[in-house]
Amino acid sequence: MRRANDPRQEDAKPAEIYLIGTAGHPNYGDELITAGWLRYYAHALPDAKIWLDTPRPGQSAVLLDGIHPGLRCVDSLYHAAWNTPSQHPSEVLDFGQRVVREPGLIPREATGIENFGTVDLVHIIGGGFLNGIWPHHLSLIAAAGAIAEVHGAKTAITGAGLSPFAEDSQEWLGPILSRFDVVDVRDKESRAALAPYVPQLTQTSDDSFLDLIPELFDSSRSTRTALNIQSDMLDVSLDEIAAYTIKTLQHWGVDQDPITLYECMPPNDSAIVPLLQSSLPKLEVVAYSKLWRNGFPSELGQRWITTRMHTHLMAAAQGASGLIIPTGSDYYRVKHQSLIDLGSDWMVAPNLTEPIDVDPRPKIPYGGRLDSIRLTKRDVAAQVVALAPSTPQRDQPRGGRSVLDITRFDLRRSAR
Questions:
Q1: Do residues 284 and 268 make contact, with C-beta atoms less than 8 angstroms apart?
Q2: Which of 165, 201, 265, 403 could form a disulfide with 394 if both were Cys (CB 3.0 to 4.6 A apart)?
Q3: H or E element: which one contains 331?
Q4: CA-derived radius of gyration, the chain
């Protein structure tokens, strides 16, 4: 049980926060979300102990090193997810709860699970990893709820993309999430499915909007035309996507110009390169490691072709225009539509036969709503941080807003 029944002991120890995410694969969007929250916590709770539960803690530690001084990377709850006895939501959720109450269910992880007794806040950070594609990950939500029940921790889930839902999983998830202190989703499909069960539910945006600091972007070296095309999770063939990409670039009259392909998930996003090279003689490939170190490309008048959501999110935040190639699945349709609903004004290819025009002139990011989107996300973040004990009292800037609402965190030791 929790050591700190004495309020004086609560005030004496730094906050202990248990983050659950999916950084370290690596996948640019997952690391982007995680790094943003770590920067936020470094500003709001610099003395906190931060446990990050992630499928690849070693790689996460490398990619996220130096952002928060209290960061420790583990994979205790992911082992619970990997050991679920079935993929049915009710059994997955039951197992996630039992692991917390009975650490011996996974003997090799018992030590880490027993440490939950000192955790003040369990925070599941955003992304699209909690859904019917990977139903075993739902155990992470159940485990978070059990840590609250057994040890008295506060609970939050932010920027979650829960669609597509596993069979009837919302009916099983609803009662668990209804007891969370903060529940925030990023798309209307997730909201519609959970709203009947979770009265405190909010829909804001992807967690990446929390902390789009200038240091994330690189304007020193980019091309007017950029690509990011995945080979994983496709319901259409990569050959079809490659042919359509070439046809579109020819239609735009840029196929003989310098074009850069960025790898957001290695090696999945470079698998298309052999299919493009003969038709795009000035194609350059930027590996994930360079992208992560140097920053996301940014150039006025840039045009993108992509399948991935976070490429869309980041490029649109810099006023770039773009074409989304559908992967054939609702999973990516929902993700991209959530950004279009926020005002990205990007185009979706209606098919893989006829290329469409995309205006290369710079856009106002998200139709002028970008600051509002960020402030709404930071309002959620302030609610989450308020759940942790001993939140530092910051000086109020002129105008009366809290620093947590308006500051652009000037942390040069970023994830890059």
A1: no
A2: 403
A3: helix 330-342
A4: 22
Q: Please, are residues 323 and 241 in contact by the beta-carbon 8 Å criterion?
A: no
Cα distance between residue 368 and residue 228, in whole Å: 25
SS3 at position 414: coil
Question: What is the arithmetic mean of pLDDT over 178-198?
Answer: 97
Relative to beta strand 121-124, strand 154-160 is: parallel
Residue of 218, 227, 383 whose CA lies nearest to 312: 227
> Can you tell me which residue has the tokens 């006023």?
319
3-state secondary structure of 154: strand
- How far is Cα 377 from Cα 382, in angstroms, rounded to an integer? 9
pLDDT of residue 300: 86
User: Which pair of tokens denotes residue 26?
Assistant: 């690596």
pLDDT tens digits, residue range 283-337?
Answer: 999 999 999 999 999 988 999 999 999 999 999 999 999 999 999 999 999 999 9
Whole-model pTM: value is 0.91
Quick one: pLDDT at residue 390? 66
Domains within the chain, CATH numbers bracketed: 7-213+372-406 (3.40.50), 215-367 (3.40.50)
**Alpha-carbon distances, residue 266 vs 232, 285, 392, 410 (angstroms):** 11, 12, 39, 29
Rounded Cα gap, residues 30 and 219, in angstroms: 22
Q: Determine the Cα–Cα distance for residues 356 and 366; give it in Å rounded to an integer.
A: 21
Cα atoms in the 13 Å half-sphere on the side-chain side of 95: 24
- Which tokens go with 257? 């110009």
Q: Give CA–CA dist 158/186, Å, rounded.
A: 8
206 Cβ neighbours under 8 A, 6+ residues apart: 33, 126, 159, 161, 186, 309, 310, 313, 338, 339
Tens digit of each residue's pLDDT (9 = 90 or more) over 251-298: 999 999 999 999 999 999 999 999 999 999 999 999 999 999 999 999
Helix, strand or coil for residue 50?
Answer: strand
Q: How many residues does the chain have?
A: 416
Q: Is the pLDDT of residue 408 over 90?
A: no
Query: What separation in angstroms does the CA of 43 have from each of 89, 205, 362, 412?
Result: 37, 21, 33, 12
Helix ranges, 152-253 (H): 169-177, 188-194, 238-252
Q: Could you give the CA distance from residue 346 to residue 323 in angstroms, rounded to a whole number?
A: 6
DSSP type of residue 215 = G
